[in-house]
Amino acid sequence: MTALTLSTAGAATLRADALVVGVAKGAKGPVLAPGAEAVDKAFDGKLATVLEALGAAGAEGEVTKLPAPDGLKVPVVIAVGLGSVPEKDEAYDAETLRKAAGSASRALAGSKKAGFALPIASVEDAGAIAEGALLGAYAFTAYQGGENKLAPKDKKNGNGPKQPLAEVALLGAKPRDKAFKAAADRALAIVEEINRARDLINTPPNDLYPESFAAVATAAGKEHGIKVQVFDEKALVKGGFGGLLGVGQGSTHGPRLVKLAYTHPKAEKTLALVGKGITYDSGGISLKPAGHNETMKCDMSGAAAVFAGVVAAARLGLRVNVTGWLALAENMPSGNATRPGDVLRMYSGKTVEVLNTDAEGRLVLADALTRASEENPDAIVDVATLTGAMVLALGNRTFGIMANDDAFRTSIHEIAEEVGEASWPMPLPADLRKGMDSPTADIANMGERMGGGLVAGLFLQEFVGEGIAWAHLDIAGPAFHEGAPYGYTPKGGTGSAVRTLVRLAERTAAGDLG
Questions:
Q1: Catalytic residues
Q2: What is the pTM of this model?
């Protein structure tokens, strides 16, 4: 994990491999952002002119590298674009700073230390820059860099992948100020857990399956004082968890339900988080078509987000009880797999006719939602890569929010926007419920094709305890990024929704959600 320091050095005296400054898009060309003054002085006041000559405009995400002049202790200056110059008396917003820091950090892969002299107008700005820089300094290299055994023993088979930037030195953040130090500590804890979630999402499914995921959660619980309970197949059968068992019965890797409980002695509220953890989704008997299987290791991203959210809450010592439920199964076709037309008896007692075995996430979530409801938390939030329909509706970068309470849905949306996670509130139209009527069971796991993401939300709502505020985050779009990295977003697992869950826990602890 990349180290984070609040540097007492100035931009002109910092010794590092590179120094990062901000440049914005002005009406007449690039404009230097606050924090770049000492660097501009070293360029005899001509840094903006030099950048313009090199083709830099200050556009968001733009990265320009140039050799440092005499007067600086670093060999390289990196100017990163911040987009348009803010209106008079306004500062750069936190997400702009977060993305810029991430872009710069990615460009510094292979470096040992870099100073970030981006504009800091508040403690929140410092936290955003720290988050972005640390999130950008991520690479999943666990399965890379192996040596060719057939090559000569005195020669390595290539140099392997570049390692992420080793240290982020934040300039202008007042190292002796408790508020700035707390912001840095918060950023480090949250990003470490986001990156843990990313690692889990990126791990191949032959190594990450329900039992091994449960083992990771158990180890983290011991490390951070979180009580962990693992329901294995025997316990699931005894408890009547028909959804989890039905989805997992086609695999040689049996399903698990993992409960993580972080408690605070002064907590007044309890928040339950439920995550879809399909460690690999073949579609089951309703097999996915060719071209749709390759990234299905990411179908446990919701469980990874919930896991990371609970651990982050524990590390931050939040005054709220947070319980995480990881609904883990591998959805595979075999002679023992659930068939379309089968009826499952869920943990709630409801029966579900399975019309499509590729609509499996809602089945494991239903059991976990019912079990979480039994403990009567103040609110439940589930997170899942649930439907392709949500990707069609909102694209690859925005997750949908559904809820049984409009005010709660609005709060989740505001929180997500506050922390820089794109989201959009979605309805739960009552007329779509009729499409899930079954002549055989209490409900079918499929309904109308149009509005399929909303249908899935309506299905889940059936398994939430009465009187409990509940929200459903469908992160199918942003959970796994297949394109080129951008900002602080890497290729592969992103850790989507972790920051939203942590901020929700913080606001709940502070009593801001009522």
A1: 288, 362
A2: 0.96
Distance CA 36, CA 26 (A): 15
514 in Cβ contact with 504 (< 8 Å): no
Angle (nearest 5°) at CA 58 between 53 and 59: 125
Alpha carbons 137 and 146: distance in angstroms, whole number? 22
Looking at residues 20-25, what average pLDDT do you find? 97
Distance CA 293, CA 283 (A): 9
Planar angle of CA 285, 291, 297, nearest 5 degrees: 70
Q: Mean of the pLDDT values across residues 390-400?
A: 98
Closest Cα partner for 108 from 56, 58, 168?
168
CB burial of residue 482 (10 Å; 0-12, 13-18, 19+) = exposed
In the chain, the amino acid numbered 337 is A
Residues 66, 78: Cα–Cα separation, whole Å? 6
Q: Which letter, b or e, does each residue of 387-404 get, where b requires 16 or more Cβ atoms within 10 Å of its Cβ?
A: bebbbebbeebbbbbbbb
Residue 442 contacts residue 351 (beta carbons within 8 Å)? yes
Whole-angstrom Cα Rg for the chain:
24
Q: Which of 206, 229, 205, 207 is nearest to 217 (CA)?
A: 229
* Model confidence at 172: pLDDT above 60: yes
Identify whether the C-beta of residue 253 lies closer than 8 Å to the C-beta of residue 209: yes
Question: Would strands 492-493 and 480-481 be described as parallel, antiparallel, or unpaired?
Answer: antiparallel
Sequence letter at residue 214? A
Residue with tokens 């999943």: 140
Cα(37)–Cα(230) distance, rounded to whole angstroms? 55
- Residue 498 CA, chain-centre distance (Å), reads 5
- In sequence order, the β-bridge partners of residue 83 are none
The two tokens of residue 178 are 């408790």
Average pLDDT, the chain: 96
pLDDT at 161: 79
